[in-house]
């Protein structure tokens, strides 16, 4: 199953009851060397700055998670957009 | 299954044979109104500019896909990183 298939299956399941607009960003970083410093935390802040150029949202509308498992780092940004967007 | 679980299951399957460093960005946009213009294509260019601040990669190392299904748009950026990064 590809990542695209995964998003599609999620959409089919929830789209009928979902009214709000939503933006979700997932960043997965697989590192070849375990001891290399990660830039994902800095990247996260810049991604949020870019998103804020396109959508006006409060801080409360954004949830950020950064998880690490071995050489795999996953950054998850969930943004709930206002229903009336300028 | 959450998105994080999905990334985890992918990592377990492929990590043994995978040597290259990889960065993957998925952006999913669920729109409440079908006729609203999408900003995902512009967002894509800015995300790539941000990524290029952190990693030096050729154009050939980046693959971009933008797919649309009803009110669901999915932007997929796959970036293969060089093994020796400055």
Write the layout of secondary structure elements.
2 copies of one chain form a homodimer.
Chain A: H1 3-14, E1 21-30, H2 40-54, E2 62-69, E3 72-81
Antiparallel strand pairs in A: 1-3, 2-3
Give a brief outline of the structure:
Two copies of one chain form a homodimer. With 86 residues, chain A is of the alpha+beta class.
Textual characterization of the structure:
- The structure is a homodimer of 86-residue chains.
- Chain A has one domain (20-81): Cell Cycle, Chain A (2-Layer Sandwich).
- In chain A, 31% of the residues lie in helices and 33% in strands.
- Chain A has helices at residues 3-14, 40-54; strands at residues 21-30, 62-69, 72-81.
- In chain A, strands 1-3-2 form a three-stranded antiparallel β-sheet, covered by helices on one side.
- In chain A, strand 2 and strand 3 form a beta hairpin.
- Chain A is elongated and about 45 Å long.
- At the A-B interface, helix 1, strand 1, helix 2, strand 2 and strand 3 of A face helix 1, strand 1, helix 2, strand 2 and strand 3 of B.
């Amino acid at each position: 199953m590809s990542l695209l298939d995964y998003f599609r299956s999620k959409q089919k399941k929830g789209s009928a009851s979902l009214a709000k607009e939503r933006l979700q960003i997932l960043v997965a970083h697989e590192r070849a060397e375990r001891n290399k410093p990660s830039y994902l935390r800095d990247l996260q802040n810049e991604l949020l700055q870019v998103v804020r150029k396109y959508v006006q949202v409060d801080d409360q509308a954004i949830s950020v998670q950064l998880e690490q498992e071995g050489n795999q780092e996953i950054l998850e940004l969930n943004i709930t957009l206002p229903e009336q967007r300028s």
